[in-house]
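Researcher: Sequence recovery benchmark, item below. Answer with residues only.
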């Protein structure tokens, strides 16, 4: 009798393929039982006491975390950044974060099986986003802590490295980020401005947003140079006359996506080394992921496959 598999290796490959197919079918079946993105968005807005017209930069995406599907819903209103985690199975609110404005007293509320709790990460972020490390130290009356954290503090007797006396101030760091982004302070809302320690150096972690995008900068506290930056555009989905989302399979192509990224970075293809350039489907959104290196910098771009718009980009200086 002829053997089904000519070798154990082929038998193993067959089993792996069967398991993969069954897994894909299982995930598809589970997703069919979940609430829609629209339902998740409405649940978050209802909890925040807002209408959709009162919220800007509204984003909803499906994710799989802690063994379950959940929707991440983010939006802004009246200077407050809202972040919700919605149970994709039944629409229950898993967690909510509010940062900025007058709602900081309720920042970091989390719900889990009917019990309210606050995570350690929320406690660390419970200070209003525009309050600097120096301001917190002064309000607490702790002059020694302020002198250790402020730019210009000298190294301690124990040998801890502080910022140099010629270092940049927080305002200078904010100005450096805004200049790099080509924006005026009057046109942005700051979400986070604080002094941090990263890669053996002191850096200012500066986050701000406009109506169109969210910006995240790391500025060297010593000389004010940009160490790292990322920009994420807020997508605005267009709709047809009947209210349904427009579908268009006329993709721009990977070569055009690479060209768009290089033009934005003001570089030539001959100057860079590409690490990644491919089409990907991110929860229903078709995008080109482009990554390349130029000298000591790593560039990463996410480009809409239909419109060619830059959804997100970041530059990491080694």
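Model:
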């Amino acid at each position: 009798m002829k053997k089904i598999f000519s070798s154990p290796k082929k038998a193993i490959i067959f089993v792996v393929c069967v398991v993969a197919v069954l897994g894909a079918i299982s995930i598809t079946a589970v997703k069919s039982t979940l609430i829609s993105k629209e339902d998740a968005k409405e649940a978050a807005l209802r909890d925040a006491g807002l209408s959709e017209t009162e919220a800007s930069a509204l984003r909803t995406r499906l994710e799989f975390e802690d063994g379950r599907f959940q929707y991440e819903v983010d939006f802004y209103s009246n200077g407050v950044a809202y972040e919700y985690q919605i149970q994709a199975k039944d629409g229950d609110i898993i967690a909510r974060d509010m940062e900025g404005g007058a709602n900081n007293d309720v920042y970091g509320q989390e719900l889990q099986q009917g019990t309210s709790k606050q995570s350690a990460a929320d406690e660390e972020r419970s200070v209003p986003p525009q309050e600097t490390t120096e301001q917190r130290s002064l309000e607490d009356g702790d002059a020694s802590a302020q002198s250790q954290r402020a730019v210009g503090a000298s190294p301690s007797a124990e040998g801890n490295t502080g910022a140099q006396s010629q270092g940049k101030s927080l305002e200078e760091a904010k100005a450096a980020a805004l200049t790099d982004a080509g924006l005026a302070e009057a046109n942005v809302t700051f979400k986070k401005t604080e002094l941090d320690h990263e890669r053996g150096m002191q850096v200012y972690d500066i986050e701000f947003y406009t109506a169109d995008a969210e910006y995240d900068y790391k500025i060297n506290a010593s000389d004010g140079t940009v160490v790292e930056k990322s920009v994420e555009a807020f997508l605005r989905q267009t709709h047809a006359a009947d209210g349904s989302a427009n579908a268009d399979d006329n993709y721009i192509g990977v070569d055009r996506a690479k060209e768009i990224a290089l033009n934005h970075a003001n570089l030539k293809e001959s100057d860079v080394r590409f690490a990644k350039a491919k089409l990907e489907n991110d929860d229903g959104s078709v995008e080109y992921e482009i990554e390349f290196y130029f000298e000591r910098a790593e560039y990463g771009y996410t480009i809409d496959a239909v419109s060619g718009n830059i959804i997100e980009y970041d530059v990491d200086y080694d």
